[in-house]
Specification:
InterPro entries: DinF-like, MATE_fam, MdtK-like. By secondary structure, the chain is mostly helical. The chain is globular, with a radius of gyration of 22 Å. The two termini are 31 Å apart.
Length: 453
């Protein structure tokens, strides 16, 4: 592993590694809990709707994939806000930091409203494009339309959470996420089973929960803004600035989604065993990603704060320590998830071929997990530094590198476990390694370390 330039001096102000470690954990552990909120919502919805029949569950699967894609593409609302707020806070401008948070809320509210209306209107067309039959399509459209108002809530949650992370508060979003998970469960059971609203009750219950979570977090940010003396109106050009900062991160996220969709398409072309195994491997990989993303969030907040304060040595120190944490976490997760694959594979299927494919795929994914830990942290560091434009171009470059490898797997790999082995190696190895090279090269230099506000 290379040592970043200047990393030998952990901090110019005397901070020791143990102090940085405590800051990383204080931010990362609560962030991990909050990250699990949306997947928990989908899990609860699946458990409740599953009792309505196969058609309803299949409709939920289709609709939830659409919703998760939309929300995933809008994650820039959290990332861009975290970086900007942390930078201003580090520069001692708490008023400006909270003003950025308020501007982010206005952008989220406007974008969420537009997307909610568009989703409600386009739901039948979207479902048709995805090829669902009549019963599944009907259930999916119903869920999408009843859950559409929740998009406003989810985007406000993203923006408010980003502001609070920038203020180095990850506990409040965690508390709201836990409360939201409980309320969502109660509302779903009540609306679907007790009142008999069907899948509409599930979508509506989740939307109400998301709007409630947004209301709580918005109140927290607004109170902080009032106490600091920030305006609750959007600053002149503030929403536009938030959008400009977010667009490169939107492009970056789009390239990641493109790689994931391409991987699923390749798996589908290699047969049912490969596709079924890929579903499990990608789900377990996603679970590991939450732990690694929590470290990335800590890196965002700490790096943004350090650069805002103009403390370059501390920035290098944070880079070094978070990379050690990320790579170490990747090693541990890789050993556990890869080594235990034979134990948990039977939980997902009784098919011996699929079980074997899962074990083979997870052994490869586990071996590549340290690379993922490195990549996630570097992503967080560069996002915290506001280096979104580079990440957008790097994302496009890595996707271009990955596409021929993925297409080669589709064309030449055999079906079954061997196909999943090569596909997992292409995504977890080639794609993630390309991201590691591009972001690592960037972090080694100084162009991303722009200090001040």
């Amino acid at each position: 592993m290379w040592t970043p330039q200047g990393a030998t001096a952990i901090s110019a102000n005397g901070q020791q590694p143990s102090s940085i470690d405590r800051q990383i954990l204080a931010l990362a552990v609560p962030a991990l809990g909050a990250l699990v909120a949306e997947p928990l919502f989908i899990l609860v919805d699946s458990a409740v709707v599953g009792h309505l029949g196969t058609g309803a569950l299949a409709g939920l699967a289709l609709a939830s994939s659409v919703l998760l894609t939309v929300v995933g593409l809008c994650v820039f609302l959290a990332y861009a806000t975290t970086a900007s707020v942390a930078r201003r806070l580090g520069a001692g401008d708490r008023v400006g930091a909270l003003q950025v948070g308020v501007d982010g809320l206005w952008l989220a509210a406007g974008l969420g409203t537009v997307l909610a209306v568009a989703l409600w209107a386009a739901a039948p067309w979207v479902v048709t494009v995805m090829g669902a039959d009549d019963e599944i399509a009907r259930q999916a459209v119903t869920y999408l339309r009843w859950s559409a108002p929740g998009l406003v809530g989810m985007l406000l949650v993203l923006a408010a959470t980003g502001a609070l992370r920038g203020l180095q508060d990850t506990r409040t979003p965690l508390g709201v996420a836990v409360a939201g998970a409980v309320v969502n469960t109660v509302l779903n059971v009540t609306f679907v089973w007790v009142l008999g609203f069907g899948i509409a009750g599930s979508g509506g219950g989740t939307a109400l929960t998301q709007l409630g979570m947004a209301a709580v977090l918005v109140v927290v940010v607004v109170r902080g803004a009032r106490a600091a003396g920030s305006s609750l109106r959007p600053a002149a050009g503030g929403i536009g600035a938030s959008a400009r900062h977010g667009l490169p991160l939107l492009a970056r996220t789009a390239t990641l989604r493109g790689a994931i969709l391409l991987t699923t398409w390749v798996a589908a072309g290699l047969g049912a065993v490969t596709l079924a195994g890929h579903q499990v491997v990608s789900s377990v990989w996603g679970l590991a990603a939450f732990a690694l993303d929590a470290l990335a969030i800590a890196a965002q907040a700490l790096v943004g704060h350090a650069l805002g304060a103009g403390d370059v040595p501390r920035t290098r120190g944070i880079l070094r320590r978070t990379l050690q944490w990320g790579t170490g976490a990747g090693v541990v997760l890789g050993i556990v998830l890869g080594g235990a694959a034979a134990l948990y594979a039977p939980l997902f299927t009784t098919d011996d071929e699929v079980r074997h494919a899962i074990v083979v795929g997870m052994l490869v994914a586990g071996a590549c997990m340290p690379i993922a830990g490195w990549v996630f942290v570097l992503d967080g560091v560069l996002i915290g530094a506001g280096d979104g434009r580079f990440l957008a171009w790097a994302g496009l470059a890595t996707l271009v590198v990955y596409v021929p490898f993925a297409l080669a797997v589709r064309a030449y790999a055999p079906p079954g476990a061997q196909g999943l082995l090569w596909l997992t190696a292409a995504f977890s190895g080639v794609f993630m390694l390309a991201r590691a090279v591009t972001t690592g090269y960037r972090a080694r230099g100084t162009a991303w370390m722009v200090t001040g506000t």
